[in-house]
Amino acid sequence: MTKFTIDQLTAGQAASFTKTISEADVYMFAGITGDLNPAHVNEIAAKNSMFKGRIAHGMLGASLISTVFGMYMPGPGTIYMKQDLKFTAPVYFGDTITATCTVKDIITDKNRVTMECVVTNQDGVQVITGEAMVMPPKA
């Protein structure tokens, strides 16, 4: 774990987190959220969908962005304030996805940082893009 205060961050600085999405991850996420959409948990229904198989919840993939903020940059104590997301491609069971967050703008007097967020799969395909605002830890 790392921890960056606003004075230690610079535009262009980035951090990433990578995880392979398992069937268990999807079922646990479904249980926690109550989102039992057949696209995620019903193999037969999912095979007949536009995706031709089960996919992970979009917010499961997006949650890796939170991991970057809370554990890597800015790190422990960060407050996640705002997020704008676009889901651009599905995440399938077994995909290895990487969330990369890059400092875009620093608002020192308000202790706020705007971050560009991109989640890619193992083939380099962007599956989620967006922008977030966080409040880095004070010290």
Features:
139 residues, alpha+beta, 4 helices
Q: Unreliable runs, pLDDT <50, ≥5 residues?
A: none
Rg on CA atoms, Å: 16 Å
- Count of distinct strands: 5
Mean pLDDT: 97
Helical run tally: 4
Helix content percent band: 25-40%
Structural class of the secondary structure composition? alpha+beta
* Overall outline: elongated
* Main sheet overview: 5 strands, antiparallel
Strand order of the largest sheet: 1-3-4-5-2
Strand content: 25-35%
The helix/strand order is EHHHHEEEE
Ends distance: 14 Å
Provide structural commentary.
- With 139 residues, the chain is an alpha+beta fold.
- The protein has helices at residues 23-33, 38-41, 43-47, 58-72; strands at residues 14-20, 79-87, 96-107, 112-120, 126-135.
- A five-stranded antiparallel β-sheet has the order 1-3-4-5-2, covered by helices on one side.
- Strand 4 (112-120) and strand 5 form a beta hairpin.
Summarize, please:
This protein is an alpha+beta fold and 139 residues long. It is built from four helices and five strands, in the order βααααββββ.
